[in-house]
């Protein structure tokens, strides 16, 4: 009997937090979550981090948020994913730079019992987003913007601004991740299907959202096409670069329309001044918050998250930039 009592006591002791006498309960443990983004340069990612950190504090979790210096550095991001898996965190959030390059790593995390939830951009997993979930060997799901729908909205807005006629240049920020691909495809396919009066020039790319590269592309297009009516840039860096090209060409009166993506201080100032017509904003803080929420609830409560959490998007311009429903999704 005494031996049995000692065994029980020993077990109880092991279940106490050292020095506090408090039982270690799953709900009380501070969860460690690795969040690997596509970059850190653009303010968008800082807003995602802010949303993740805020949600983590509410749920007794700690987030380590990292990303490569540029959104072209796929290999560097894969190294970060490898390092995150080696740390054996409670969970991993991952925004895929490449399409399929990360699949073996995601499967490795799964084999080690580390749940993964993707955010902003999903890797191209077999069967797509519909096949994600607890039975997937890659990820539980993804929290992101429907980029095809967002690109389609940008096309509708551009066509309306131009009266369904004129030349438009599309400048993409990535050919190697699904978000970049979808933002271009949504715009281009919508224009071809619904706005046949619009002439689309050949799509060009400022990889990684390089503002200087985007500036060069747009500057050259303005010289080669004196009748260029509009430019669509698929991320913050591209939109800023296009705006710089407009300034250099003294096109500050809005005569050539510019629709961008996301927000950031410079882009918002350009919209307020009339240099830029408008932009599509996502909910970056919502993306970060929803990712953390999904992972914590799964680890703590085994609550299976949706395989796709649509975090929404909005079009904004000078007329509505200050409205609460828009301003709440903007960041500097």
UniProtKB/TrEMBL annotation:
Record flagged with keyword Cell membrane: no
Where in or outside the cell is it found? Cell envelope
A molecular-function term among this protein's GO annotations: carbohydrate binding
SUPFAM superfamilies named among the record's database cross-references: Periplasmic binding protein-like I (SSF53822)
Looking up InterPro entries in the UniProt record yields:
Peripla_BP_I, SBP_2_dom
Sorted alphabetically, the keyword list is: Signal
Ranges where the Periplasmic binding protein domain occurs: 34-302
Q: Does the keyword Signal apply?
A: yes
GO cellular component terms listed in the entry, alphabetical order: cell envelope
The UniProt entry's coiled-coil ranges are none
Which family would the database say this protein is a member of?
Belongs to the bacterial solute-binding protein 2 family.
Q: What name does the UniProt record give this protein?
A: Unannotated protein
From the broadest rank down, the organism's phylogenetic lineage runs: unclassified sequences, metagenomes, ecological metagenomes
């Amino acid at each position: 009997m005494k031996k049995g009592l000692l065994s029980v006591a020993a077990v109880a002791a092991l279940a106490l937090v050292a020095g506090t006498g408090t039982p270690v309960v799953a709900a009380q443990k501070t969860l460690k979550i690795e969040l690997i983004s596509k970059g850190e340069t653009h303010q968008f990612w800082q807003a995602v981090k802010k949303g993740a950190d805020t949600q983590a504090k509410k749920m007794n979790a700690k987030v380590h948020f990292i990303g490569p210096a540029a959104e072209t550095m796929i290999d560097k991001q894969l190294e970060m994913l490898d390092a995150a898996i080696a740390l054996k965190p409670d969970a991993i959030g991952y925004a895929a730079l490449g399409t399929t390059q990360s699949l073996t790593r995601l499967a490795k995390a799964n084999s080690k019992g580390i749940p993964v939830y993707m955010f902003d951009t999903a890797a191209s997993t077999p069967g797509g987003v519909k096949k994600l979930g607890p039975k997937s060997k890659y990820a539980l799901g993804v929290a992101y913007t429907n980029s095809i729908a967002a690109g389609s909205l940008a096309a509708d807005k551009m066509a309306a601004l131009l009266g369904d006629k004129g030349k438009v240049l599309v400048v993409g920020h990535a050919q190697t991740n699904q978000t970049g691909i979808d933002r271009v495809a949504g715009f281009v396919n919508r224009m071809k299907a619904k706005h046949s009066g619009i002439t689309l020039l050949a799509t060009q790319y400022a990889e990684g959202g390089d503002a200087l590269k985007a500036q060069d592309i747009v500057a050259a297009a303005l010289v080669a096409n004196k009748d260029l009516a509009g430019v669509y840039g698929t991320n913050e860096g591209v939109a800023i670069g296009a705006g710089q090209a407009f300034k250099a060409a003294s096109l500050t009166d809005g005569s050539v329309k510019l629709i961008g993506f996301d927000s950031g201080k410079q882009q918002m100032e350009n919209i307020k001044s009339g240099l830029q017509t408008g932009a599509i904003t996502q909910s970056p803080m919502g993306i970060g918050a929803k990712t953390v929420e999904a992972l914590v609830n799964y680890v703590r409560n085994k609550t299976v998250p949706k395989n796709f959490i649509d975090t929404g998007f909005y079009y904004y311009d000078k007329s509505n930039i200050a409205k609460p429903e828009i301003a709440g999704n903007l960041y500097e």
